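The freezer alarm interrupted the setup, so I double-checked each line after restarting. Inputs confirmed:
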Amino acid sequence: MATAKGNKQQPVILITNDDGIMAPGIFNLIEAVKGLGKIIVVAPDKPQSGMGHAITIGSPLRLQQVHLMKGIEAWSCSGTPVDCVKLATDKILHKKPDICLSGINHGANHSINVIYSGTMSAAIEASIENIPSIGFSLLDYSMEADFSMAKKYARIIVEKIIKRRSDKHLCLNVNFPAVDESLVSGVKVCRQAYAKFEEDFDERKDPAGKKYYWLSGAFVNFDKGKDTDVWALSNNYVSVVPVQFDLTNYVLKTKLEKIFKP
Amino acid sequence: MATAKGNKQQPVILITNDDGIMAPGIFNLIEAVKGLGKIIVVAPDKPQSGMGHAITIGSPLRLQQVHLMKGIEAWSCSGTPVDCVKLATDKILHKKPDICLSGINHGANHSINVIYSGTMSAAIEASIENIPSIGFSLLDYSMEADFSMAKKYARIIVEKIIKRRSDKHLCLNVNFPAVDESLVSGVKVCRQAYAKFEEDFDERKDPAGKKYYWLSGAFVNFDKGKDTDVWALSNNYVSVVPVQFDLTNYVLKTKLEKIFKP
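Predicted 3D structure, all chains:
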């Protein structure tokens, strides 16, 4: 991959996440790719899980330079993960980084989660901006999660992508099973499984007797394919799903042209 | 289309938006489809533009029944447009509506806007839930916008979709040009144009001298195709783009399988 200026300088690696700049996952991602390029961290100042592709348009944004790790330039941002990518490019780097990495997320972003995930939306935003990107997630929500296997495989994947002059819109959704390295079956390129959440809001009453609701629900997989990310992860593979931002349903487009013919 | 119970009852039409339950656009959408089924409105209690596919997971949600229009059941919701669809189905209707309509948005949701738009994310959420859905947007941000043409075409499109037993995951992104009805070229089924925003954050200083940023930027179309929504709208067509939630990039998947082969 050429660097941002097309010369032989080390590549600029932008790192963000949606769990916030103090989450263990982002420390582990920095450690995973140390030495592969010049790292800049721009991440939300608070957890932003489930923010999807939200951008901040009704209020102003703040950036604050912070100490995160020796030798690493880091900024906390008051906005969403997508805001972080936009601000990093426009106001901190003043150019596009060579690659954008997001995560490592605490919890799965396989299948339909790609749509709700702030981690993946940051990566998708980068790919819209012609910045190759990878979002990483570990199937373990715990703050004490063991990231050692995820770190090893994240570095292998980033090295592979940096080595190649990759598709300018490349965006990968990488998920790690929550297993010890010795049990990993390998890396598997997959499609997004058709799975979704079956909502079951938790209905409660406040002290005044008025109802309120907590989003809750169960993840249900309807997809029996062995080429999906859900299958790969349940068989201890690291799953890699290439993601696109063209949402056109071309199959349905052909059908609709008949319905709406002049 | 069969009704929710599969009998000959009138279809249940869920209406939401991202401009908030008091926006003129949602009143116009209700008027547009009055008589086509039983209408239930569940919409955000405040503007939620640019919220993308955000869901509320860190705080509880409220629902409040409100008077909006005679004979129409309406609820305001403290959450995002996607939260509205989830709560409407699980806690108000206690079943899936036959169709979900979102809008009419004040401003364009063509091309890449589909990713940032709360209006379109509500429609996409419905389609994930096997509820056929249509998001409507008018290329006019004004609160005094003239919705008369949009209303007429919205009704035509909804009638067409209700008539057919449509794809259970059908999701349409419909945009109306800001022109008088006499100037409309017709309805055109399109693909999503490759266009994006070139950010240019507005940097200011607060009274304490600290910097803050307002998201700003220009919309740039890189796509010269005549089969895109941007082309259609600039030629006075009502654009209809079928939208999917499978984000897998199948072309890139084949390439990656070579890079990541065991």
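Quick read of the result. Confidence is low (pLDDT under 50) at residues 2-7 of chain B.
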